[in-house]
Structure formats: structure tokens, C-alpha cells
Specification:
Chain lengths: 250, 284
Amino acid sequence: MLRSVKASWASKFSKLLFVAALGFVLPTGAFADDVSNVPQPFEFPHARHAGKFKINCMYCHSGARRSKVAGIPPVAKCIGCHSNLPSVRETPRIKKLFSYWEKKEPIPWLKVHDLPDFVEFNHKRHVQRFIFKDGRSTQQTCGMCHGDVKTFSVGQKVKPLTMGWCLSCHQQFQGESDVGLPAPVKRWMIPAAATDKPILDVEHPQPAVFDAEHPVTMKASDVKIMTEKLPKSLKEKFARAPHDCWQCHK
Amino acid sequence: MSLSRMLENWSRLNQRDYYKDEPIMWGMSIDLNKCTGCASCVTACYAENNIPAVGKEKCATGHTMHWLRIERYWDLPESEADLAVEESEYPERGAHFAPMMCQQCNHAPCEPVCPVAATYHNPDGLNAQVYNRCIGSRYCGTNCPFKVRYFNFFDYSEDIPHPMEMLLNPDLTVRSKGVMEKCTFCVQRLRNAKGDQADKGIRGHVEDGAVQTACQQSCPTEAIVFGNLKDSESKVSKAWEDHNVELNRHEQFHEEGERGYRVFEELNVEPSVMYLDRVRDTNA
């Protein structure tokens, strides 16, 4: 009896030793190519921005809908909101943020989703297809590749982002494209005044529909034409407005 | 990539008009009458496609690297009078220039010889090169009659001093050592143009003039015309029609005023680039 107990203990111990040795030999992330622990200059709480306040991913990563790369927002974008948020002004992270702003330096964020150079991934194509054409929610669409970011703090790479993984989706969606069908009537860009809810609290806002009459990005000349029609008091105000409606209407 | 895909790629070479139902076939027309040999297309190509400048010494050892080159031809002296001119300080030797880039052959000699199918024909009529599949056997470059394939003998990107890497075009990869490369007809621009059309819900049609190659864009005399050969309204297909140049014909028959030809047509490689012969007034 005693002997058998000893044997089982010994076998357990040897198993434990084996697992520990394996862990020692194979560095963590050897399989998943996980770079989630990259030391960022300071912690950016995605959970607060995307999760608690439900800010649309494309508010900060504004390149996603119109270019190949989603982009990291400039410090000015952070300051744009945070200069009006005195409640968190004295917290350590925001102090650090403002120190970059005062030094006029970009924050040296490290890239988490870094693909090899020969990979042609186009954010715009995916965003246009799933958010603008299919009307899926932004967080669901972005989450296909980036995981449930609203639960993260620092950005993490949770999907393998390998070629086979891309294909698993591409084979699934092949032939289901509704490109060419009339665009859905739903419009995301509801003026904030027309809704009861405060802007930040809109649940899963509906995406803007791409159509030529209501471009979300306008040229300076187009803005001028539009503002010509406004009353004089508003005209002056809008003359210096950003040319990208999305900067405010999220 | 499976073996079946590779065999399909190989067998495709023997089938004429494999992609005849595809809506796009990119083609080019180069008017040598207009070409002044200024080489701005070469410069634009270097800038657009992240091509390393390898330098004089490497060029001398055969490690040249330029997707687009200007070929220079001289008239041969025919008479004694010509020879007398030859000996003067500034001889008039009738220089003429031909920009030479990958001809995007429809029956490309480079494709069947690749052991790993890194070079293949894509449905848009491009002779595509997959960098991460290339093992650097250089068979394709050897088999190319135009000698427009260039090999990365070194890791040129490592020599770029620090802030200069900011000059690189982010739309396409920087090639590494041991990889064959060549003119792609600025495929990154073509893809962007197709993407823009897809946003509008249009597939398989790119408006003529919506996309320009870097060489075409920079050409001061507009000698280079680029577009979709399957679109009968496009400038390039009109140029082909005007000069009576057709695909699947090894020899072009010209009437008065027609001067279109393709380089090495007799090899039956079916290039997608048409040249318009230079006409000179020799009596002047």
C-alpha cells in the first residue's frame, strides 16, 4: 500500500518535472507568436475607452475605413478629449500622456499586430465590407482579427494571424458578398441632438452607409460649398471645422 | 500551395486565352516617337517600388537592379559621310530610346521554369511574382528573353542609413536577399484602384485613367499609356486598335501610318506591352 502511494507520488513528481522542463526548454509563446507582453510606454486601457465608454474603434484608429493601415492616433487626438476631462487629469497615466504632449513628442507605442512585409492586409476592404455593407457592429468586425479588445487593457495579439487562419474566414465568406445590392437604409450618422442618449453611451452604433451624396470624408472645397448654405452665425463656426465628419459624428 | 495548384499553373501555359473571360487585362502602349530618354520613368520606378540603388560596382559585376531601364540605340554609320560625322566632336548618331520593363507576357517563358511556382499568371493578365515563395533559383531570369528580371544578390535594405528608410513606400514589401523581382505594373496601385471600385459596388471594372503606373505618371511627354485592354473604350486598347496590333498574332501587318509592334513577337511570348516605332525624317 505504502509502496504504491510512493510510486504514484514519484510518478506525479516526475510528470511535474517533465512539464517544468518542457516549459523551460520551450519559451512561452513559441507556438502562438504571442507578443501581448510587449512593454508599451504606458498602459492604454482599451477596456475603459472601448468597453466602458463604448467609443467606436474607428474614432481613434481612423485610418481603418479609408486606408490599408488602421493607424495609431496622434497624441493630439488623446489630448483633444483629455484636455476636457479634468476628473482624470492627475492620474499617473494621463500625467505621462501630457508630458509627451508638452515635450511635443510622439508616444513610442510598440506594434502588437505586426505582420511580415509580404503580407497584404487591407483594413479598408474589410471595414467597407463588414461594417458599411453588411452593417455589422464595429467591435464585432474588428474583433474578428483583434479579439475582444473591450476587455483588454494593453492591446494583445490573440488571433494567430497566419495565412491558414485568414483562409478559414475567406473560404467561409466567399460568394456571400452583397456588393452591388442596394445599400441598407440604416444610417449611423444620426445627429446627437436627435437622440436621447449621450453620444458616448450609444449602444453598438449603426455604421454610416457609404454613398456618394453623404461622403464621410470631404474635400475642403466640398465643405465650403456646404457651409455656404448655412446662416452667417453658423458659417463662421463651420469654416474651421474638420473636413472629416467622423472626427465628431461617431 | 498544393502540388495541384502548381501543375495547374504549368499546364495553363499551353492553353491560349485561359483568362479570356476575365474583365481586366492590364496592358501598355509606349510611343517611341514621344520618348526623349529622360529617364524620369526610371526614377519614378525606383521611388515607387522600393528598388535599391546598387551602385556602379555591382552593376559592373552583373548585379543590376532596375525594373525599368532605358535602352539606347544608335544608328550605324552607312556611308563615308556618316563616318566623317562620327569623328566630329558632337556626332549625330541618331540616338533613340526604348523604355524596357517586364512585358507581362501572356505566354511567359519565366512561368513554366519556376520550380516552386513563385511566378504565375494572375487573372488580370499580370505576370505576378510571389516573393515569399521564391527560392532564388534564377531560372526565370535566365529564361526571360527581355532580361527584365532582377535578383537580390544582397540584403540591400540593410544598407539604408537610419532616417532614409522613411522614404520607402509602405504599400509594398522590401525584398530580401535571394529573391527575384521585376516590374509589377505597380500592382499595389492597381489593387488600390480595384478596391476603390469595390467600395462603390463595382467589380471587374476600373475606369480608364483611374489608375496610373509610376512611369506613366512621371513621363513628361506622355509616351506611356496604361490601362485595361479588355475595355474597348480605354486609351490603351484604342492605341492597340489604331496601330492594328493584336494578341495571338506573331507578326503585325502595317498599313500606312501604323507603327505598332511588340518586342520579340516571333518568340510567341505574347507581351502586353506595345511599342510604337520611331519615325525619323532622315532628309532633314
